[in-house]
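Good morning,

Both structures are done.
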Amino acid sequence: MDTEIVLEKIIKKELIVINSQAKNKDDLLIEMVDILHKNNFVSNKEEFLTDVHLREQEGETGIGQGVAIPHGKSKGVKTTTLAVATLAEPIEWESLDDEKVKVVILFAVKDSDINTTHILLLQQVAVMLADEEFLEKLKHAKTNEEIYQLITEK
């Protein structure tokens, strides 16, 4: 069994939003799901968004230091991927440190993917986010390319 996921196969530049103007969590999630749908990673926006909201109700996905990692495993997802957004202004999000969020990494997981895919992906991203230098670069990235390079070269 693989113990690592090749992030270049999971993340795409067109799924990265820089300086989203979203003013709250719901607006941002809708914006990110729309991008996933527009780029053919999600077949059913409403179903996926519902699954993300259900997961949000289970516990906070704000992991601290201005980062949130919402996720949903859903029949509405065609291909497992990540969408990333930085925000023009930090927004409220239930988080471990009660800080507002500046970066959101949305995990869209295909329902038929085995659980280890989801867990491995979360683990790899968590390891990246534990790196202070990586986190600072991510928060201050100015382009899709910059974020893509940060994540895929890590």
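Second structure follows.
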Amino acid sequence: MAPMAETNDADATAQRAAEREEVLTKARTAKAAAPVLATLPTPEKDALLRDAAEQLVSRGAEVLAANAEDIAAGRGAGMSESLIDRLSLDVKRIDAIADGLRQVAGLSDPVGVVVQGRTMSNGIRMRQVRVPLGVMGMVYEARPNVTVDAFGLALKSGNVAMLRGSKSARATNKKLVEILQDVVVKHGLPREIVQLLPCETHESVQDLITARGLVDVVIPRGSARLINAVVENATVPAIETGTGNCHFYVDAAADVDSAIAMLLNGKTRRVSVCNATETALIDSRLPAADQLRVITALQEAGVRVHGDVDKLSALGVRDVVAATEEDWADEYLSMDIAVDIVDGVGGAIAHIAKWSTGHTEAIASRDALTLQRFADEVDAAAVMLNASTAFTDGEQYGMGAEIGISTQKLHARGPMALPELTSTKWILEGAGHVRD
């Protein structure tokens, strides 16, 4: 049996080498295409995006056929129905994806925008202008819409898109990129300005995120496990996005009815998104009847409550799931929520500081000083004062489409729209100036 094992090992080694070379070859061609896209005029970008939207709709039957192949494979592999839903496309969803491209076409082009400028005392004129990042790698899971969203945002901001989707969406992503590349070529541009990377093994992600000198930035979008794997192993600059252990604190000075409405909106509106509320914190000074009312409202909405069984049972709460350390850190993405009773706003801030992922934190209170303290002391990309966590969204902010929510502090924080997909450079214009 040894010769066969050696043959299998040799085949695997050869396959791995071929996969790595494919990623690097595509990265090289992307780098070569980047200058072409960086100088593309805005009207040409917008025309291409609108044409791509039309082609996605007109070739929708091809996309749906590819998607059906992925769905069948997913069900055959035992994929959960929640993941199947993320993966699934229909005519309505394709129309929405196309509308997203049209929306991006209607947004202001950030490339070339002057951030600041002045004339130096020696007469040299200086200005800081927005420029594309260059080659943008995107690593994401079973959401085919991200394939098109990433392409649209990358194109409008002058960036080449290298897309590494999940194996579960392989056929759908392949068809989507084929359509996009056909449109790109039709508009006289290199098809390499959008490329799909191999997804057979996890190692292709590593090839992408270590391609320094070829890839300028990598953005992971998906589960905490995926994001951490990229951020911890990348040698290419990475922008951390998405993981949202979002808290909602109900203060003793809150309007309880309003607080319940905001809490339910954040938890139950869409459980699978990164801005969903995952932990409710309730002020111990709130009357016990109101504490019970808040928790009962969650349970009546079908939400499973995780917490300290003894503490919550003392309030009259039934059917509490005993919380572990993981519960306080978890991004459930389901109809589950962790609930804790805390000692005022100080206790809420301390709990958030320990367990937050830095995405979105919210408070319900009618006390101005409490609201101000929460805003000043909570460290997160977004702080909501008397508003649901669901509002952390680029479109809600009036920024248009977004590539994700950055939870880091360098380069960009919060919704990453078109300006956040650019860098800047300084241009100094003199008249033969020399320095003493």
